[in-house]
Amino acid sequence: MKAFRFAAGVTALLVSACLAPVAAQAADPIVIAHRGASGYLPEHTLAGYELAVRMGADFIEPDLQFTSDGQLVAMHDATLNRTTNVATLFAPRNGGYRVEDFSLAEIKTLTVKPVGTAQTSYPGFTPANAEMRVPTFQEVIDLAKQQSAATGRTVGIYPEAKQADPAMENAIISTLKANGYGTTGDKLFVQSFSDQTIRSIEEKSAALGMDLATVVLGYATTDSSGAAAIRVGTRVYSMQEIASFTDGIGLSLSAAITADYIAQAHAVGLQVHGWTFSQADPTRAAAQFASYLAMGMDGVFANYPDLAVAAVDTFSSAVPEASTWMMMLVGFGGVGFALRRRKPLAAAKLANA
Ligand code: G3P
Ligand code: CA
User: Fold this and answer.
1) Is the CB of 76 within 6 Å of ligand 1?
2) For the whole model, what pTM was predicted?
């Protein structure tokens, strides 16, 4: 499957070499609500995810941690104290508040508190579930399904395995399978900073007959020849190497990204998503989104999904999609073919005269 995407990518590069604008995205860029609408409401809460959907986000992003009783919960940190009131309810365990030291029942008693620019409510928005509790992965999926039905558009999920743990891989795969995911084209990406985790998820899910789109997270860099590469942990992969086992790369904005870099990733069939767009000022945010979208970035992790949606709408209305360019190419080809046909037809008519 990945080899097919690589071949398709090379083909796309050849086409795009003939038609430069085709080198841009194959579809509209996607908006990924980073930890929900985390700039507005407490991160990784059902209310925050719902607000993101209502703002038009394409995907909601649950980071995943394991509880002591093996349940997947949506939480960025490996500890509970930054984002919840755990310290007011429980004494430390093993010297701290690690998620893996608390049961799901205990974690469900906690309240998620706003951090950063987030508030406890958003003007004019009443969430279906106003309780600021730590949701399970299953509850996030349920919300995506409910919101898909409510809005009439499929809400994608973009779970991240926060631990390089085979048991976590298994739990993510089994949860996805139980919820009907695993078909090519599902609105889903599974992401990790661990190359090994992504390789393993690809292999294990394939063995179950599932096709899960995956994204490896890392930092843009170049190899010794100057070609685009990605640093994942301590290892540097060429674009060809990383494309052999995943569908996309998720890049930190902290390392320089260029249009040429993204073109090299596209050339091997990789999607390119960037994290994290956290600019709250609308004007500055619009400029930042516009610069990366113009480079060809396929997706943006955004703390303020409404600003990202506005930027993508502006970008997409100004730039014809690749499919439009291909239609134009086919159209031009058809005209050329007709003109070429006219000459022998005209000659035949003369011969018959
Ligand atoms: O997963 C992409 C981005 O969210 C990575 O950063 O630390 O917010 O999970 P983090
Ligand atoms: Ca994440």
Assistant:
1) yes
2) 0.86
